[in-house]
């Protein structure tokens, strides 16, 4: 089944025309990205710097890679991500998508809302050395994390668009014949293991090996840090995916093929809020050596207030304060309450929509990425804690209230990002994106089962 009927779509060039609202390519078009106090040093093993100090994105978990494929992803010295425009029509289509959604004169509430689920877009960029090579300049969604655990999940029931050649269709189906049934595909991930102070990485072959019956355990690995399951990160991810589902259910103007969700959570134990996380490591006991993405090495400037580095050795703004847990943000409490007092008896779709609304409300304080946000802490319980928990097996239909309570039980929200990325195959439409919605709902069910199994 396809996510949308080709007949319901415009011819590709028209589609592009309709999306093309903002200025065309050029060096440094669009708003300026925030500058960080210091530029990146090339991470160990990446060789000499590329293109005016830009380096290959060291924490890329999937997709076309710089130096491997014809196009790839770089990191700019200011900390942003540079995605090289793919050959037409893919690259221009993705650029037009971003420039439309982020157009200064955009008044479309649907697109304005969509901005909340995307990386920020800073226009196109090109190096003075190669002005013809265009890049999309994007917020690095992982930037505020010290040890970002990252997962890329492709959504939809098929990963080719309605205009794909027969050859392309067959190539995509061959790669993952379960896409239509599962509705998503894990493209790659890296998971911080607290016991070894190292990242475990999984490439696209891992995800392709997962079928309907094994996808839950396969996905659960993303949330396991070698010591325990990060229930807090699962619960926060559910909340964020629900908000994205709510957006999809509210709109009938765009369809997305071969587009991904990028999940990120903080792997560093001291930053985790989960009471279930009984890591033997404290922040000070985490090695600062090269762990394939370590924190600042000996040559890093000693500025404790901003001394967190993500795995790319990019100086990251202080993602939270380490002081006493006095600022237990209201939005999280509200979310827990909402989950617990929501209408648990609703049918799954309504329930999801309602929960999305609740999460939306909850996350109003999270509107824009790039803002400094305080990490949650683990103090205090949530209402309803300890009430009637019962473990469910995979496949059992979970009651709404059960799921909500367990999300609440999973304690305070973890620092999590879930953003939509990769828009080379986005088209105008006049109906819901059924393929993407199907994938989101199944993904939610799987995440909810991971949480319930762990309760
Ligand atoms: N804004 C971002 N912030 C952080 N990491 C990003 C961002 N955009 C992309 N990445 C990293 O780059 C990877 C590939 O991104 P993306 O899917 O956009 O590239 P692609 O080459 O179009 O992929 P594909 O080959 O699947 O079409 C992601 O899995 C992620 O690791
Ligand atoms: O996971 P893999 O094996 O790297 O496969 C790639 C993946 O399916 C990409 O989504 C696809 O780009 P599109 O989604 O843009 O089609 C790319 O097509 P390509 O080889 O034509 O670039 C594939 O090679």
From TrEMBL:
GO annotation terms (biological process): inositol phosphate biosynthetic process
Compositional bias ranges of the Low complexity kind: 30-39, 276-288, 297-313
Pfam families assigned: IPK
A cellular component annotation (GO) from this entry: cytoplasm
Coiled coil: none
Gene3D superfamilies: Inositol polyphosphate kinase (3.30.470.160)
E.C. numbers: 2.7.-.-
GO molecular function: ATP binding; inositol tetrakisphosphate kinase activity; inositol-1,4,5-trisphosphate 3-kinase activity
Enzyme class: transferase
Recorded catalytic activity of this chain's protein: 1D-myo-inositol 1,3,4,6-tetrakisphosphate + ATP = 1D-myo-inositol 1,3,4,5,6-pentakisphosphate + ADP + H(+); 1D-myo-inositol 1,4,5-trisphosphate + 2 ATP = 1D-myo-inositol 1,3,4,5,6-pentakisphosphate + 2 ADP + 2 H(+)
InterPro entries documented for this protein: IPK, IPK_sf
Positions with biased composition (Polar residues): 354-363
UniProt KW keywords: ATP-binding, Kinase, Nucleotide-binding, Transferase
Keyword Kinase set for record: yes
Basic and acidic residues bias spans: 364-374
Transmembrane segments: none
Disordered as annotated region, ranges: 18-53, 276-410
Family the UniProt entry places it in: Belongs to the inositol phosphokinase (IPK) family.
Name by which UniProt lists this protein: Kinase
Originating gene: ipmkb
């Amino acid at each position: 089944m396809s996510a949308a009927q080709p007949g319901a779509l415009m011819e590709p060039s028209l589609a592009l025309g309709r999306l093309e609202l903002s200025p065309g390519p050029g060096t440094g078009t669009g708003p300026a990205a925030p500058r960080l106090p210091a530029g990146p040093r090339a991470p160990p093993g990446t060789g000499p710097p590329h293109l005016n100090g830009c380096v290959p994105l060291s924490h890329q978990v999937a997709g076309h890679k710089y130096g491997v494929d014809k196009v790839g992803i770089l990191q700019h010295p200011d900390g942003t991500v540079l995605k090289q425009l793919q050959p037409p029509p893919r690259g221009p289509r993705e650029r037009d998508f971003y420039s439309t959604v982020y157009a200064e004169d955009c008044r479309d509430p649907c697109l304005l809302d969509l901005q909340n689920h995307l990386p920020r877009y800073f226009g196109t960029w090109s190096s003075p050395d190669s002005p013809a090579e265009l890049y999309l300049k994007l917020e690095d969604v992982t930037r505020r994390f010290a040890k970002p655990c990252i997962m890329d999940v492709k959504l939809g029931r098929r990963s080719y668009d309605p205009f794909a050649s027969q050859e392309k269709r067959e190539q995509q189906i061959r790669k993952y014949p379960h896409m239509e049934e599962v509705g998503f595909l894990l493209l790659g991930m890296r998971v911080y293991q607290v016991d070894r102070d190292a990242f475990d990485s999984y490439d696209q072959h891992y995800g392709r090996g997962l079928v309907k019956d094994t996808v839950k355990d396969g996905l659960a690995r993303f949330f396991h840090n070698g010591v325990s399951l990060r229930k807090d990160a699962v619960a926060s991810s559910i909340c964020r995916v629900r908000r994205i589902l709510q957006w999809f259910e509210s709109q009938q103007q765009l369809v997305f093929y071969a587009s991904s969700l990028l999940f990120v959570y903080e792997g560093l134990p001291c930053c985790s809020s989960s009471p279930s996380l009984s890591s033997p490591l404290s922040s000070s006991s985490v090695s600062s050596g090269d762990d394939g993405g370590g924190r600042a090495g000996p040559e890093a400037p000693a500025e404790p207030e901003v001394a967190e580095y993500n795995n790319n050795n990019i100086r990251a703004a202080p993602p939270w304060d380490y002081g006493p847990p006095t600022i237990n943000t209201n939005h999280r409490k509200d979310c827990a309450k909402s989950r617990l007092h929501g209408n648990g008896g609703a049918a799954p779709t309504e329930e999801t929509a309602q929960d999305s609304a609740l999460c939306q409300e909850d996350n109003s304080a999270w509107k824009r990425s790039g803002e400094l946000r305080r990490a949650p802490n683990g103090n205090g319980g949530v209402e309803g804690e300890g009430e009637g928990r019962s473990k469910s097996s995979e496949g059992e239909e979970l009651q709404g209230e059960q799921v909500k309570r367990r999300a609440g039980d999973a304690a305070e929200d973890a620092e999590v990002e879930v953003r939509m990325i990769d828009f080379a195959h986005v088209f105008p439409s006049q109906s819901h994106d059924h393929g993407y919605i199907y994938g989101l709902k199944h993904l939610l069910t799987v995440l909810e089962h991971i949480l319930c199994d762990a309760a």
